[in-house]
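Sorry, can you check?
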Amino acid sequence: MKIFADLALVAPGDLRSKIVVTVEEGRIVGLEEGTPEGSDSVVGFLMPGACNGHSHAFHRGLRGRAIQGADDFWRWREAMYRFADRLDPDTYLELATLVFREMRLAGFTSVGEFHYLHHGADAKAYADRNAMGRALIEAARQAQVRLGLIDVAYLHGGLGEAGYLPLQGVQRRFGDADVDTYLDRVGELDDSAMVRIVRGAHSLRAVSLSELAVIVEAIDGAPWHLHLMEQVKEVDALIGYYGERPLRLLEDRGLLGPSTTLVHLNQVIESELACLVRTGAVTCACPTTEEDLGDGLSLAGHLLRAGARVSIGTDQHVHIDALLEASSIDAHERLRTHQRSLLRTEELWSTLWAHDTIGFGEVGWIAPGALADLVALDLSEPGIAGVDPVELVRLGTRAAITNVWVDGQETTSDIDGERRELGAQLRATIARIEGKY
């Protein structure tokens, strides 16, 4: 298969003209200047498919439905728990398939699904302890995306003044008996060409430092993920119990490194920037979710400028749009500093392609040997018509996407038709899960 692109962004900061990309058996085998003649597809702008580094698929059911009365993060969480309690492996498969399809149509060719909804509504394990995780794996297969199943430990119900609290209510569906049970359960899941099993912990509210250390040791250098420092209340609780700020706690115990992805970090302070640069830990920013939940401005732009690595995620799916999420990093930095254009464009582009953080180290650039996960944009789409193509990361949206290839296969022949069909299916599925009809 050959794809001709008038313009191809083959890597951050490397925009080329009149490029022919040759694909065989799911991999790019050729990249050269050429003409459209003999190509299977002709596109205006080609880029690597994006990585959604942090997703909770079932949260998509809350979009526009957890507003009134959920006046802070903790009230919103109550609405999230109620929706989670309505799901079983069958409904989870149905909803997650639609959500992963929405991601693909929005430019994401791989997703890191931060999975903690493990067990049945009675808090008992299904006959297959990983029934919910396998539903997500099947959903990704049907949706034609790569999946990093980030199956995380969730062992406690929170952190109070006296220490860790027991799981309560719906939280009991999330929990394993202990670290060994968690590791044993996740060990029953296998990698494949399109799936990576990634481990981690929900948060330091749900897993203690000593338990996290056991998990990180068992991972032995593989990628792992953790929610951290999203809310002020969370940081205060950790300082009150452990006596130190969270990043200091993790670094002092040797838990941070390039294989670590810390999600959010909205409450990072200036003196902690060096820790992130020094350890190589990745920050996964989810700015549109962080806006919606009142977490505060994303500090991802500040971290990028300091030399730390940043990826993007859509988290609770207020929006699912790869380019919008990256541009929001820039917007938050402008609002924080009251200045414009402090971030280099190539820094923003780099946040889209952190596929290695979910186990796919051969995706995220256009070059011979890379896996052929690609996205094309129409430069005549009104929202970006006349824009300097290098700046599409600041101004583009999913509306401009015309083609998506995953593993060398074009995933749809009618992207507008699939969008219309998907919208109707999402509306019906979410209403049915909520019990509306």
Notes: The chain has a mean pLDDT of 96. Residues 2-48+364-421 form a domain with the Urease, subunit C; domain 1 fold (CATH 2.30.40.10). The radius of gyration is 21 Å. The CA atoms of residues 89 and 132 lie 5 Å apart.
